């Protein structure tokens, strides 16, 4: 039987080569220079532009990009097509594509005053391209917020201990922010005290789990769980599909994300992400260490080998537990964030670039941060292998994948002498930490997107949004209401499941468009700049994602659901029709932006490297 340590070894080798060699080359290629003033210093305002110490910003960045998708995606893909194809895409694609995508997005934003990729593309291809990308990104953000809020609800329902621990470390983060930024207190002593408090919060959560509602039927929370409302919450919107407790957590998470997105970054976002990063490092690093220790010394409660239910290669069309999915191109869209994610370009160019203290920090935070997400994907794949719930993960999507991460992770941690009784809730809390940080960061990014779409009064950037609508869309506290309102409707309508594949497709298309933005920037910067490092990954992602969305739209929905009658009832038919329409719109937007970018590059190269004037076409 194959030991799971080979999964870890494969990614460690390719990631080390990528960081030591390729990231150093890219740093020189984009000419990172610490003598150049970063946007954080140039526009420091104590709100959005805040120069940050490298370990603090790395914690924020890593926590923000590492959401639930790099856990759900590799587990689901490994269960459908086998662990070998999933491992290969993570180990090879991450350092050559995903880490390049994140690094170039961050570096490009640094040279454009910390502005988003939408602003950058608009500088070179005109307002039309900028508006298309901003709307594309904003709609993707709404899907991100909806899906992540739902997943948090699922995890808090399954592991009430994670709910209590989450409240503890959010409260600690607020205090830590005051300690660090208002009292200008030393970082290291504060880190020791407050990180200890976060881990104490894990113990408190295990001792005093918390839930909103009782579980229906024969299900029950762990003994000792404090339940706020003495009912099953059947009246909560979405309770029929999700269960009252899960549905009750969703609006709580959305309101939290809205409030966190409006507060100054030093108040909650930065200190919370920094503190939680130690929890995340402990979860991912601890699991990887446990795999090594357990394999060498045999200290785990179960052999750390790949379960018989997980084949190296199941087949091109996957397993019978799900509808036949062709490995190409659906593997790449399914794994998504574990290898490359467009959402990361929004984090890099939306929040991280506004807080970078010096340019050389971009190498570790941008390129290295994405490698950290790849390690999370490898950890998730390992938990699937050890847990062996392949058919459940394949057929159940989110509901099947998430239990694998906590359960399998708990078994792995027994190698370090941690009982599975404590290990599984700890890994659940790690997952919640990833999700919470990504959710409120996504809401903040959505606010930035909308502000750029409607423009700023008196700046000459105003659009057709004026009067009350423009003021509402620009408002720090009103803008997030639009996002969480639409996200909540998506979740409670029961249509979130039908939109999950589109979320993955939109996210991957956004990655392709971010790479396109980086390629256009490099082409306009200097004639001698090679465009292979960004252009080739961009072309691959465009082809893969367009084919994947075409399969979803025309095979799964148009043919199977509408023509063959798989969608029974008016509601199902409308849902299938919407999926077809959304996929076609996403494909059109992506190809249109690629055309605009290609035209710009052609004009620049024909003029011998002189930057072309932005086009309004």
UniProtKB/TrEMBL annotation:
Q: Does Nucleus count among this protein's keywords?
A: no
Q: Which GO BP terms apply?
A: cellular response to starvation
What is its membrane topology?
Multi-pass membrane protein
Where the record annotates domain CstA N-terminal, the positions are 5-384, 398-546
Q: Which UniProt keywords apply?
A: Cell membrane, Membrane, Transmembrane, Transmembrane helix
**Membrane-crossing residue ranges in chain numbering:** 6-26, 133-156, 162-180, 187-206, 247-266, 278-301, 321-343, 364-390, 410-437, 481-499, 505-523, 535-554, 574-598
Cellular-component GO terms for this entry: plasma membrane
Subcellular localization is given as: Cell membrane
Q: What is this protein called?
A: Carbon starvation protein A
Q: Which organism is it from?
A: Halobacterium bonnevillei
């Amino acid at each position: 039987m194959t030991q799971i340590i080979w999964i870890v070894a494969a990614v460690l080798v390719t990631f080390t080569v990528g960081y030591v060699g390729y990231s150093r080359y890219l740093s020189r290629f984009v000419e990172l220079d610490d003598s150049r003033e970063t946007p954080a210093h140039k526009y420091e305002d104590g709100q959005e532009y805040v120069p940050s110490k490298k370990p603090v910003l790395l914690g924020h960045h890593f926590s923000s990009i590492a959401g639930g998708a790099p856990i759900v995606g590799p587990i689901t893909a490994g269960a459908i097509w086998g662990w070998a194809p999933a491992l290969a895409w993570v180990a090879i694609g991450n350092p050559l594509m995903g880490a390049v995508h994140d690094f170039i997005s961050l570096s490009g934003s640094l040279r454009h005053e910390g502005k988003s990729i939408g602003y950058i593309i608009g500088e070179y291809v005109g307002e039309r391209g900028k508006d298309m990308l901003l709307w594309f990104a904003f709609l993707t953000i709404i899907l991100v917020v909806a899906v992540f809020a739902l997943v948090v609800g699922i995890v808090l329902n399954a592991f009430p201990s994670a709910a209590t621990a989450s409240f503890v470390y959010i409260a600690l983060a607020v205090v830590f922010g005051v300690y660090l930024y208002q009292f200008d207190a030393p970082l290291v002593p504060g880190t020791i005290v407050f990180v200890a408090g976060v881990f104490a919060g894990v113990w408190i959560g295990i001792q005093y789990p918390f839930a909103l509602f009782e579980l229906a039927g024969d299900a029950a929370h762990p003994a000792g769980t404090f339940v706020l409302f003495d009912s099953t919450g059947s009246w909560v919107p979405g309770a029929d599909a999700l269960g009252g407790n899960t549905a009750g957590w969703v609006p709580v998470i959305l309101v939290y994300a809205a409030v966190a997105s409006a507060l100054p970054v030093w108040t909650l976002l930065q200190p919370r992400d920094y503190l939680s990063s130690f929890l995340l490092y402990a979860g991912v690093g601890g699991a990887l260490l446990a795999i090594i220790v357990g394999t060498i010394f045999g200290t785990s409660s179960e052999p750390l080998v790949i379960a018989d239910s997980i084949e190296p290669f199941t087949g091109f069309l996957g397993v019978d537990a799900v509808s036949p999915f062709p490995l190409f191109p659906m593997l790449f869209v399914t794994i998504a964030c574990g290898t490359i994610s467009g959402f990361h370009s929004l984090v890099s160019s939306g929040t991280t670039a506004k807080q970078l203290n010096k340019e050389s920090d971009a190498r570790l935070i941008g390129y290295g941060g994405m490698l950290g997400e790849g390690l999370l994907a490898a950890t998730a794949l390992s938990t699937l292998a050890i847990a062996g719930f392949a058919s459940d993960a394949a057929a159940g999507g989110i509901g099947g994948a998430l239990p694998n991460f906590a359960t399998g992770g708990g078994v792995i941690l027994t190698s370090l002498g941690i009982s599975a009784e404590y290990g599984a809730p700890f890994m659940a809390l790690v997952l919640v930490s990833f999700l919470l940080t990504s959710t409120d960061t996504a809401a903040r990014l959505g606010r930035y997107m909308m502000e750029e779409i409607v423009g700023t009064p008196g700046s000459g950037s105003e659009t057709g949004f004026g009067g009350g609508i423009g003021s509402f869309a620009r408002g720090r506290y009103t803008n997030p209401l639009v996002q969480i309102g639409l996200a909540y409707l998506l979740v409670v309508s029961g249509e979130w499941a039908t939109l999950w594949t589109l979320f993955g497709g939109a996210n991957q298309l956004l990655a392709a468009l971010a790479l396109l933005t980086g390629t256009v920037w490099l082409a306009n910067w200097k004639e001698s700049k090679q465009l292979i490092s960004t252009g080739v990954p961009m072309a691959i992602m465009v082809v893969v994602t367009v084919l994947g969305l075409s399969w979803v739209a025309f095979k799964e929905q148009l043919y199977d659901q509408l023509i063959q009658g798989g969608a029974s009832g008016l509601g199902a038919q409308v849902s299938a029709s919407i999926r077809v329409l959304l996929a076609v719109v996403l494909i059109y937007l992506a190809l249109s932006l690629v055309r605009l970018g290609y035209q710009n590059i052609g004009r620049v190269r024909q003029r011998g490297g002189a930057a072309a004037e932005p086009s309004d076409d």
